[in-house]
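Entry type: protein chain
Record version: 2
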Amino acid sequence: MRSALTHQLTVARKQAMRATREKHIQILGMLPASAIPRHLENMREQSAVTIQAVWRGHNVRRDFSQRKHKIVRVKSAVIIQRCVSVTLSVIGSLLFTILLNIVDTNY
């Protein structure tokens, strides 16, 4: 099942690439000879811009994922520190109360 779907996607991708290539050849056939180098340069620039945009998007998504994990770690550390602080303050106040009771009973 999966291999059949993969095959269908491969065939569809190859057909799309073939159609694009044929369209490009038709466009080049319609252009005067003097305009072909300029057209090819424009296509090259458009291709470069597309590649750069895809690469930048990939980098942004990767950086966001890394930052997200770092933020989660920092928030977790803050929660743990807060819990420890509250626990220590409660223990400290209980010890203080116990010590006061011991002092009061001795005097």
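Comment: Residues 31-106 form one domain.
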